[in-house]
Amino acid sequence: MKAAVVFQKGELPKYTKEFPEPKVQSENELLILVKASAVKNLDKMQASGKHYSTQNEIFKEKVVGGDGIGFLEDGTRVYGIGISGMIAEKAIVDKNRIVKLPENIDDATAAALPNAVMGSAPALLFRAGLKTGETVLINGATGVTGKIAVQIAKFYGAKKVIVTGRNESALKELLALGADEIINLKQDSEAFLEQLKNSHNQIPIDVVIDYLWGQSAELILSALKGNGSFSHRTRYVTVGGMMNDTITLSSSVLRSTDIQISGSGLGSWTREEMKLLIDRILPEMFQLAAEAKLTIDTVKIPLKDIETAWDINIDGGKRLVIII
Question: How many angstroms separate the CA atoms of 119 and 218, rounded?
Fold first, then answer.
């Protein structure tokens, strides 16, 4: 079959027409005829062996891609999480991790949406426990997942959404998606702190969803720092480390502030939360997208061009989707 395959550890995926077709091995597995699969940072890190979920993995040649959309053998069109790699004509999916797709959603949108939803909805709902009427700060909101996080936060009841980023025009575009206030990370630290502190003093920030970490996280935590009197409770959830994977955290921030810090990602969710994501949240998001109430921008590339597409420089607010 045609597929995108990493043959040697550390190499880019290569297009091949003759990779062996995957076989169903148990009653919990289903064969899917893949039509589209999105390329995420997670896919790239797992393919290279650099992601924490693959660090103890013994390398063998493999099809890349963690999820995708296509047709089951009975003709049902579904999104599925792959047991085998998904950037191929055929793949194996777990029958308990598939979602039937609404008719009006196109292949590229359906393939691109789930990863962004997984990077935002669990953080907002499972870790932060977002409540109707609360204020949410999304740090690093101009990327694909950040844009979805803005829309989902509003959908689940956030009254105010504050967004940060470095691209002024991209930040302004977020206002049309539901953001209420923008804070540019390109300004100097003192100006950033002053703007964030003023915003927090006017309407306290209940939830922080952080895709950047690094210095931006240090500044946000500093802005939330208490002064010895009673402080507002803030739930801080880290989802990524695009700026830097480590920070310096003063003990005084934690001692002076009613703050809860947690993370959201592979390995942090419970089985019950994963089931809720598959059974309720993703179907809900697919339906919103089908009704044009949730939007995601994509760039579509055919499978045969995978070698040049894998590291192509795409606008940060768009998702690369491989069309099979």
Answer: 21
Give Dmax (Cα) for the chain. 67
Q: Among positive and negative, which fits the CA dihedral 15, 16, 19, 24?
A: positive
Domains of the chain: 3-117+286-323 (3.90.180.10), 120-263 (3.40.50.720)
pLDDT in tens, 69-85: 999 999 999 999 999 99
- Tell me the per-residue pLDDT of 179-228, one tens digit each, with 9 for 90 and over: 999 999 999 999 999 999 999 999 999 999 999 999 999 999 999 998 87
This model's pTM is above 0.70: yes
pLDDT at 54 over 80: no
CB 102 within 8 A of CB 286: yes
Cα separation, 32 vs 83, whole angstroms: 11
Predicted pLDDT at 51: 60
DSSP single-letter state for residue 13: P
- What is the predicted pLDDT for the residue at 226? 86
- Compute the radius of gyration of the chain from its Cα atoms: 20
* DSSP SS3 for 262: strand
| Distance in angstroms (rounded) separating the CA atoms of residues 47 and 8 | 10
Q: Which residues contact 136 (CB under 8 A, 6 or more apart)?
A: 124, 128, 130, 153, 158, 160, 161, 162, 205, 206, 207, 208, 209
Q: Return phi, psi of residue 75, to 5°.
A: 95, -5
Q: Alpha helix locations (H) across the chain?
A: 41-48, 107-118, 121-122, 144-155, 168-175, 189-202, 214-224, 251-256, 271-276, 282-290, 306-309
Length of the chain: 324
